[in-house]
């Protein structure tokens, strides 16, 4: 159905695809896996006509094609669903589906006909989508189905899905996989780009593994294992399971963070966090699970002191002291460290060098300046600290004079994590610690977080990766629409149980 | 840069003069000793101050279009101090007037900073407005309170001898005292060094640059970005205000309406060309100073080319520098949608 032959693509200095060969058989689900920056999205965007390849050819239905734009690919029956949906929020499902391929005459759009066709398509796949619903009223999972319909409406026979599960709840993922299997039964071909190995094993027929712009492995799914795929992706053996002992102090540890009735409003006054109360003790990791956008980001930002006072209410105590009114800087001084969810927006100054980034947040106290109240930055001391940080956290390349921009996502994250972990903090707020980070670095960061816990630090961990929070947390709180929907023991709770809480259903038991 | 001169040369040829000769004249008159160098440095002095002013603001992420108004406010207040306290000893009066210059500029720059920090008013708009207010207010006070009666020119009375700083000709052998190059040139050099040390070697500079490079990360690092905005604008205004030390205390000895040849605006070009670094600002200001000096001679000694050529050259250079900047930031690659690779 689809074949890439010797595809090479450069972006400036970066060799994104290096002689990539890939073959997708018709009527199968084919997974393209690899770490961030491995070149999988680039390869598939070339197949979709979004980028032109520098050399090599795209073969569709056995014929080498010249794809000048996605329109050419669509005409040949190739559709793509991007990670970030391309839908117009204020328009209906039907309007979005036909956008760019409006049926009817030159002047009038035949929406009724389109709606009928959409209903037909939905029936075939057993999807429940109302063609007249407005996009903004739909859940993320439903929006994704609209994207699928959009491609099918254009008679796609080959569908490329770019990280389709990144924003979904476990239930949505299961639902999506059912739809994909039904599509395969109808003879469609599906390419799914992902870095989640459990999903690869669950859904695909064949796998192509990429690393550093090259194809490093082609296997049948039934002949492989997660361990083998991980080894191919990273290039060395990887520990997939987080090994951690029981929380040492756990329930008996001293409360470090106590939150009472915390409310956070968006700038427009909409409530994002609607009264949340919980405690985090020394030596434990409390996990926060939930579908993204249910108040997790606001919770962490409010605890770090980054939300203006007039948009919050409630009470935040650190080691018995009321810190509600303190700005970020004073909270940092009292031992709150923070690994932010967005390292580019919050965690790093990309134009600053690694040494300057290593003192972000502590630039006004020793050792960055000589003595308390010092004014002059002590470059020698800063370099010494940075050098230790880079080697301890295995940041590469370990050159303190390099701008942070020059590092890969994984190395940037290790720098941020290292800076915050080595403060050392009494309370560490951790948001999406491994987002966009390769498997090798994920394993490393997880081990560091557990080591910090075992040293008696209190950790609050927010992650969109359910596997990550359940593996790391000692207790798990589930947020839904700004409230705590329930608390579970991650060691015994099933993914289904947590997933139900994430969608707001009350616990059955 | 070279390309800009080539384009300028083509223009000269089109106008009917020999480009090579014109450039020789431009350069020769700018670096001759003592007049060329003396005047080049004199013209460069205010541009160093305004270039630094714009650069400091840009480092904090702010575009200060108001250096012009800040230096007008400073110049008037400086002249006012000089006129009002003529009996003070020069050892007291000169520093006092100099401080007034810095303070006047700092206040005039600090107000837009405050408006931005407190209400989110955009500094480009407010500084432009503050430009008009400064020029008009200074003109009003000069016209009705500080003008010599009957003087047709809009300027204050002259300050006494105690409010003047020495011309460099007094100390440098071979440099005649008629050239207005004065001690404030040395102050400008010191300001370059000072700005460099402040921005890159102190925790205050760190906070200011972090605010400009990534406000979100600065906040995360416990830096009050609102405070940095006010500080940066006041600092920027103070640097712009130092132009008054050169012009009022070192050259005209009075406030003169329209004294600034657009120093505040040229400062934007100087900062841009100097890549917002004090060393770069110094080089760019000297270069622009030389263009100004040479431009006068080109005006006089060529048949068709006027000193406007210099402005055309300036414009072309800025255009090329800006284009190069855009190019460096990487507009290369697909512009349609920059996703992940």
Brief overview:
The complex is a heterodimer of chains A (509) and B (341). Chain A has 509 residues and is of the alpha/beta class.
Helix content of chain B: over 70%
Question: Can you identify the CATH class of the largest domain in chain A?
Answer: Alpha Beta
Distance between the termini of chain B: 34 Å
Please tell me what the overall shape of chain A is: globular
- Determine the CATH topology of the largest domain in chain A: Rossmann fold
Count of spatially separate domains of chain A: 2
The oligomeric state is heterodimer
C-alpha-based Rg of chain A, rounded? 25 Å
CATH homologous superfamily assignment of the largest domain in chain A: P-loop containing nucleotide triphosphate hydrolases
What is the structural class of chain A?
A: alpha/beta
Biggest beta sheet summary of chain B? none
β-strand amount of chain B: under 5%
Number of strands of chain A: 20
Number of domains of chain B: 1
Biggest sheet of chain A, open or closed, and with what strands and sense? 6 strands, mixed
Beta-strand share of residues of chain A = 15-25%
Structural class of chain B: mainly alpha
Helix content of chain A: 25-40%
Tell me about this structure.
The complex is a heterodimer of chains A (509) and B (341). Chain A has 509 residues and is of the alpha/beta class. Chain A folds into two domains: 2-234, 3-Layer(aba) Sandwich (Rossmann fold); 251-343 and 427-502, 3-Layer(aba) Sandwich (Rossmann fold), CATH 3.40.50.300. Helices cover 32% and strands 25% of the residues of chain A. In chain A, the strands form four sheets. In chain A, strands 6-7-8-3-9-10 form a six-stranded mixed β-sheet, sandwiched between helices. Chain A has a six-stranded mixed β-sheet with strand order 16-17-18-13-19-20, sandwiched between helices. In chain A, a hairpin with a 2-residue loop joins strand 1 (2-11) and strand 2. In chain A, helix 14 runs parallel beside helix 15. Chain A is globular. The two termini of chain A are 49 Å apart. Chain B has one domain. The longest helix of chain B is centred in the first third of the chain and has 30 residues, at 90-119. By secondary structure, chain B is mainly α. Residues 330-341 of chain B have low confidence and may be disordered. Chain B starts with a helix and ends in a 13-residue tail after the last helix. Chain B has helices spanning 2-15, 19-31, 35-59, 67-84, 90-119, 123-146, 184-201, 203-213, 215-220, 225-241, 243-252, 263-273, 278-301, 308-328. At the A-B interface, helix 1, helix 10 and helix 11 of A face helix 8 and helix 9 of B.
């Amino acid at each position: 159905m689809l074949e890439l032959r010797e595809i090479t693509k450069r972006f400036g200095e970066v060799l994104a695809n290096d002689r990539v060969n890939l073959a997708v058989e018709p009527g199968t689900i084919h997974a393209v896996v690899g770490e961030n920056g491995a070149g999988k999205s680039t390869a598939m965007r070339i197949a979709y006509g979004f980028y032109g390849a520098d050399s090599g050819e795209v073969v569709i239905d056995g014929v080498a094609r010249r794809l000048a734009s996605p329109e050419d690919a669509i005409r040949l029956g190739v559709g793509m669903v991007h990670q970030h949906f391309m839908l117009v929020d204020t328009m209906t499902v039907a309007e979005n589906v036909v956008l760019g391929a409006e049926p009817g005459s030159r002047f009038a759009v035949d929406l009724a006909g389109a709606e009928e066709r959409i209903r037909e398509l939905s029936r075939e796949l057993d999807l429940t989508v109302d063609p007249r619903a407005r996009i903004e009223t739909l859940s993320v999972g439903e929006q994704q189905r609209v994207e699928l319909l959009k491609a099918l409406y254009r008679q796609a026979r080959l569908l490329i899905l770019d990280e389709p599960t990144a924003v979904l709840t476990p239930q949505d993922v299961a639902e999506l996989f059912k739809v994909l299997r039904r599509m395969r039964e109808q003879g469609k071909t599906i390419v799914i780009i992902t870095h989640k190995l459990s999903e690869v094993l669950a859904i695909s027929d064949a796998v192509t593994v990429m690393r550093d712009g090259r194809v490093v492995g082609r296997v049948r799914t039934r002949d492989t294992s997660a361990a083998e795929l991980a080894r191919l992706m990273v290039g060395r053996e990887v520990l997939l399971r987080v090994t951690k002992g029981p929380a040492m102090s756990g329930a008996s540890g001293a409360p470090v963070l106590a939150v009472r009735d915390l409310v956070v409003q968006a700038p427009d006054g909409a409530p994002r966090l609607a009264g949340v109360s919980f405690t985090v003790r020394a030596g434990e990791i409390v996990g926060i699970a939930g579908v993204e956008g249910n108040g997790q980001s606001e919770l962490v930002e409010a605890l770090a002191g980054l939300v203006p006072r007039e948009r919050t209410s409630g009470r935040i105590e650190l080691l018995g002291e009321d810190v509600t009114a303190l700005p970020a800087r004073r909270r940092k001084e009292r031992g709150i460290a923070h690994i932010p969810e967005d390292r580019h927006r919050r965690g790093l100054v990309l134009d600053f060098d690694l040494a300057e980034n290593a003192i972000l947040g502590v630039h006004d106290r020793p050792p960055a300046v000589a003595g308390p109240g010092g004014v002059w930055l002590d470059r020698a001391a800063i370099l010494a600290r940075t050098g230790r940080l880079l080697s301890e956290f295995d940041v590469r390349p370990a050159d303190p004079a390099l701008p942070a921009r020059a590092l890969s996502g994984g190395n940037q994250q290790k720098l941020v994590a290292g800076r915050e972990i080595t403060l050392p903090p009494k309370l560490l707020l951790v948001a999406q610690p491994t987002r966009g980070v390769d498997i090798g670095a994920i394993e490393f960061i997880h081990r560091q977080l557990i080591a910090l816990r075992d040293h008696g630090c209190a950790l609050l961990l927010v992650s969109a990766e359910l596997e990550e929070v359940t593996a790391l947390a000692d207790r798990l709180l589930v947020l839904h629409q700004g409230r705590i929907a329930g608390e579970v023991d991650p060691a015994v709770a099933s993914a289904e149980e947590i997933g139900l809480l994430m969608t707001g259903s009350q616990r059955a038991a | 840069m070279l390309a800009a001169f080539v384009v300028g040369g083509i223009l000269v040829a089109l106008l009917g003069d020999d480009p090579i000769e014109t450039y020789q004249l431009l350069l020769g008159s700018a670096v001759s000793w003592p007049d060329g160098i003396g005047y080049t440095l004199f013209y460069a002095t205010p541009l160093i101050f305004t270039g630094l002013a714009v650069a400091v603001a840009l480092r904090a992420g702010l575009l200060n279009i108001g250096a012009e108004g800040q230096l007008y406010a400073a110049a008037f207040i400086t002249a006012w101090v000089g006129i009002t306290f003529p009996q003070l000893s020069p050892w007291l009066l000169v520093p006092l007037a100099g401080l007034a210059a810095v303070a006047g500029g700092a206040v005039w720059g600090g107000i837009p900073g405050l408006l931005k920090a407190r209400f989110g008013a955009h500094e480009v708009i407010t500084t432009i407005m503050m430009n008009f207010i400064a020029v008009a207010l200074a003109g009003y006070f000069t016209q009705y309170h500080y003008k010599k009666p009957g003087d047709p020119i809009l300027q204050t009375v002259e300050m006494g001898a105690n409010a003047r700083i020495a011309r460099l000709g007094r100390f440098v052998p071979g440099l005649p005292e008629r050239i207005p190059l004065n001690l404030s040139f040395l102050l400008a050099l010191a300001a370059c060094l000072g700005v460099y040390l402040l921005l890159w070697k102190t925790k205050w500079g760190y906070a200011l640059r972090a605010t400009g490079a990534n406000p979100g990360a600065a906040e995360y690092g416990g830096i009050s970005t609102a405070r940095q905005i006010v500080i940066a604008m006041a600092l920027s205004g103070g640097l712009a205000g130092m132009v008054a030390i050169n012009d009022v205390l070192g050259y005209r000895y009075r406030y003169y309406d329209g004294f600034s040849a657009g120093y505040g605006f040229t400062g934007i070009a100087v900062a841009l060309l100097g890549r917002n670094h004090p060393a770069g600002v110094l080089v760019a200001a000297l270069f622009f100073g030389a263009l100004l000096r040479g431009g006068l001679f080109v005006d006089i000694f060529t048949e068709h080319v006027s000193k406007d050529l210099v402005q055309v050259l300036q414009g072309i250079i800025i255009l090329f520098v800006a284009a190069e900047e855009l190019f460096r930031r990487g507009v290369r690659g697909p512009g349609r949608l920059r996703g992940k690779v």
